[in-house]
Amino acid sequence: MMLISSSNLRRTLAIVLCFTAMAVHAATPLSELYSAVPRPPADVPEALTWVSDGEIVHGKFVAVAAALAAERAKIATLNGGTMPSIPITVATSVPNSVEVQAAARSFADYLAHAQGDAAPKAVLGKRKRWLQAAFGRNQMEISKSMAPCDMPCTDVAVIEANKRLISRRDYELKTEIRAWNAMFDDWKTKQFGVLIAGDARIEAAGGGAAATVQGHSIIASYQAAMLDEIELLLSITKLCVLRAEAIVKGLDGSEPDAISGATKKAAK
Length: 268
Description:
This protein has about 270 residues and is an all-alpha fold.
């Protein structure tokens, strides 16, 4: 009986696990990646554990963001090194397989309902800006009423003077986090059908293995559009977390919607 050294055994197990992970990743549909997007944290203390040095470090969030980047890189590679643009419309009578033609029709239908003010990014952006403004006004009012103190504040007198305002700030933020969670749930449910339909059509068409350049381009653009949908859902969680951190760290009154520049960037 041949014995395997512990070092060789570890190496063998590592190789097996690597290939297993690759196989799972390759077989994971975009709808499953959409389902894996983490919901915003439930409260302020949890939100603060998600962030380190201004960056979100929560395991599930980082994993989904990395998977998104990997999928984009894969599509870009298949598309000649650049991400395909999202067209306004696509031809539905492409000279290709029945599956590719079905994917083209599905994508054309998606695009027909996702233009201008009806575009998912525009619709969600409007909702996010409204929520930020609604809660931001209250947070700015609270911030301007607080006695100034460098963070972390150690001045007992200032802490005591600000106690009531901090309690009000925390209540407002707790309510806001609930609102972000409600928005996340609503948006996820609203757009999930889009991901399911896109996934099924792209998978049936061979995931981009179309017989013609035109068919290949349509499938690549469809995949890119679905990745954008996943990124939009992730952006709700990201904005919620960064706002919570910015508000708790203290506001100086310079931001009209009570959030940091980094959070503003994430909201776009």
